[in-house]
Known about the structure:
Oligomer: homodimer
CATH topology of chain A: TIM Barrel
CATH architecture of chain A: Alpha-Beta Barrel
Number of domains of chain A: 1
CATH class of chain A: Alpha Beta
Radius of gyration of chain A: 22 Å
Strand content of chain A: 5-15%
Number of strands of chain A: 13
Amino acid sequence: MSAKRQLTLNLFIYPGGHHEAAWRHPNSSPDDLLDIAFYQDLAKRAEEATFDSLFFADGPVLADNIRYASRFRVEPITWLAAIAGVTRSIGLIATASTTYFEPYNLARLFASLDHLSRGRAGWNIVTTSAGQAAQNFGLSEHPAHTERYERGREFVELITKLWDSWEDDAVAADQASGLFADTSKIHFVDHIGRHFRVKGPLNIPRSPQGRPVYVQAGSSEDGRLFAAQYAEAIFTAHQTIESARNFYADIKKRAAAFGRHPDHVKILPGISPFIGSTEAEARRLEEEFDALIQPDYSLTQLNRMLGIDLSSFDLDGPFPRHLLDRDGAIGVASRFQLVADIIDRENPTIRQLIQRLAGGRGHYVKAGTPEQIADEIQLWFENGAADGFNVMPPWLPGGFDVFACEVVPLLRKRGLFRDHYEGTTLRDHYGLPRPESLFATPVRASA
Amino acid sequence: MSAKRQLTLNLFIYPGGHHEAAWRHPNSSPDDLLDIAFYQDLAKRAEEATFDSLFFADGPVLADNIRYASRFRVEPITWLAAIAGVTRSIGLIATASTTYFEPYNLARLFASLDHLSRGRAGWNIVTTSAGQAAQNFGLSEHPAHTERYERGREFVELITKLWDSWEDDAVAADQASGLFADTSKIHFVDHIGRHFRVKGPLNIPRSPQGRPVYVQAGSSEDGRLFAAQYAEAIFTAHQTIESARNFYADIKKRAAAFGRHPDHVKILPGISPFIGSTEAEARRLEEEFDALIQPDYSLTQLNRMLGIDLSSFDLDGPFPRHLLDRDGAIGVASRFQLVADIIDRENPTIRQLIQRLAGGRGHYVKAGTPEQIADEIQLWFENGAADGFNVMPPWLPGGFDVFACEVVPLLRKRGLFRDHYEGTTLRDHYGLPRPESLFATPVRASA
Lengths: 447, 447
């Protein structure tokens, strides 16, 4: 056991990489983006670097700017199951929507992933922000933010009961007596709520971790409340250490108010590192990527975050601040504030704002030497801004390799990051307890 | 290319094996039933035996007789994705319900499975017969048989459009011009039906097979119509070659009436073989398994198939034929007729009927030498009863190994079965065409 507090590192895999023009760069291989071997190789490298976990975003709708970028979405649970087949230790976190899945189906998909990966599954719980998703599910309109979170809470309460519906020792498999399962340890969940009515039990025995690790990424007021109550890890976007510290303190306090141990909520800000042997070289690399940006793509992204169509404005003119509807943000709520803060702080032209956001869609982009990146990580980690990082390589796989080969050894040398896995499950890596079943019967005194 | 018509062989994997008491037999390893390595090893052996495919059944509800047998259900799409990671050629068929999935979600799960397996996915289309499933999805009652099939047809029409919504060459990935996808080749499906309203397109490029192979297993009137119209392979249960021949001729005729090529509907009856070096040894093996039957379990199975509670009857008394409601079968419709035929033909006691059904839940159980099993397969194959078989080992993995080692070489020697894979996809193995997208634009003359 390490005595020193350890960083949690997650690899966030985005087809092509996180820079919005990454797929166009000669370092990228856009022909491999649907090839499972590409992702399996990447996962093996992340496992060699003893990363805690890797992660895929998701949403049940096609991005309307697919013309310009590799924004298709393979389904992450299946994708991670194929990755589980060629890895042994690394955690596997899939995004899935509480608005557009049926709880019983999703409970089965994750329970199976946790079984087949021997306890490495995590669920990034999202309510889906893209309104067009509704049209793929027969809804006349996308449920409002508050409504989605209300359904999300009921969904999590219900799916937790389903994952707990078999006590850990319900399977007897006693060949001699013929008792396969002790049905007194398998429970109906009998859930009756506003959104769901589910009897249960699940038809899969309890999985190695009991439940997958609950991950969350919303930073709106609803999102923070939800995260503080349920999330065991939070992916979050901050441009400055001050913003991250405020978020960190707020979430830990809220979690404690829910009676939770603050260490059981890992705060993982995103970082997208451009790494060079000098800072100037790193900046040149970032500029190479920025030169490949297609403004038509970027403007649709901005429109999504801010609810403003900027296509008729001069790219090199000032951002039209009067259009920011600060009271009625209709885009992705948590990103609205972040982008508005950048505009207030930096007063950029539209083109400058586009470049500012191209690397990580609002996440922190840092160009520097390996030492500078490691210093920044250490600074945030040791000053109440982060329990670790959601590492978002600008391009793949090279953008991850340079982090693994140049930055990870520095973090290890400083005693901040493991050089081997001590446990076998994602809960082990994150230092999270394995939850007991809600239905577990208290230990009886022996007769 | 083989000149001679070749058998299609599918391995039907049932946790523990197909004999209902298999998990109790010393040859079984009930502790491995949730261990993915057990299934991955089995898949590798099936691939060494050049089987066309392997298959998992499924249903979104826990069997009420789990006390007596290993009747949990891991989710098969995820399970097969993990198996895809360690195999290269064998087809991977997952069952999923048109009654209890959302089409957009299921389209994504299968498209991902087809991508990550490089074209090896198959979908066993079921409407779910177990009525209790409704209670896991907020429905006050399970939709009736005809209603389920109506929804199933609309589901298949819709999901086909989703899988076709990207033309094969829609992804350009042209780094120089910045064109990632040609949006003129990505289509809204704009489906508006009685059960679903889905705009599309799918958010995943078209998969290697275009669509997974469509498999079906219903044998009721609705099931046959559905199969003749959509299925490319049919799993079916017959106790006699006569019954199988009638079914075979009926389906091929119906398929032709739908304008389909009869060779593009593979008829695969189930066979559960007990194999011994003499017929007597094979029968002793079967008796060993039958001796482990728990009648309380078997009676719930019979109740499910016939809609009759026999628990108060003498097991060694005659089957109470007057209780058979031949006009209003409420159980699994296609199995009702099969079991009623056995009762009419053999006039068994209840215990004899239980033993008769224990091996394969109505599928054909055959005890014999490897030669006898191979003879039976050849007889059905060459006399209009089968295009191949759904092989259902009584126990696993040994029950499969003996078939692979003893029967497969005989089939090869007789020129009936491949000794290596000629293609790479499940469609290749089954000899099925790769469907063109419904939205494909006709080839234009070059300018």
